[in-house]
Amino acid sequence: MSETTVPAASAPPALPESRSIVGGKGTGTKSRYLKDNLARWVVWTGGLGVIVALMLIFVYLLSEVFPLFKSAEFEPRQSFALDPASAGADFIKASFAPPSKTSYA
Predict the structure, then answer these.
(1) Angle at CA of residue 70, ends 67 and 71, nearest 5°
(2) What is the C-alpha to C-alpha distance for residues 35 and 37, in angstroms, rounded to an integer?
(3) Which residues, 6 or more positions from 19, have their beta carbon under 8 angstroms from its beta carbon?
(4) Cα(26)–Cα(17) distance, rounded to whole angstroms?
(5) Could you tell me the end-to-end alpha-carbon distance of the chain, in angstroms, rounded to an integer?
(6) Pick from 26, 45, 49: which is nearest to 37 by CA?
(7) 95 within 8 A of 87, measured Cβ to Cβ
(8) C-alpha–C-alpha distance, residues 94 and 15, integer Å
(9) pLDDT tens string for the chain (105 positions)?
(10) Quick check: pTM over 0.70?
């Protein structure tokens, strides 16, 4: 039997050090990292702004809904006596007229 030899796998050609992206040694790598960090902070700030906006919306809704759960309070603003005899018939017609009829005072 004859032995066959398999050629050894050759390593990929090495990139010149000026084009390597490993370790930040490539051209334009610093600007890429700067843009990446800037984008990271912009996205983070935008997400935080959305969360704060949603919390403020919920606070507003709670402040509007909260009075529905409190008991009703009534304070009279003005009190006056009404004498139906001195008011006249027009007052009675205007007060007790059905909504479909024209009322006048």
Answers:
(1) 130
(2) 5
(3) 26, 27
(4) 7
(5) 126
(6) 45
(7) no
(8) 97
(9) 566 776 666 766 665 555 555 655 666 778 888 999 999 999 999 999 999 999 999 999 999 999 899 888 888 887 766 666 665 555 555 555 556 655 555
(10) no
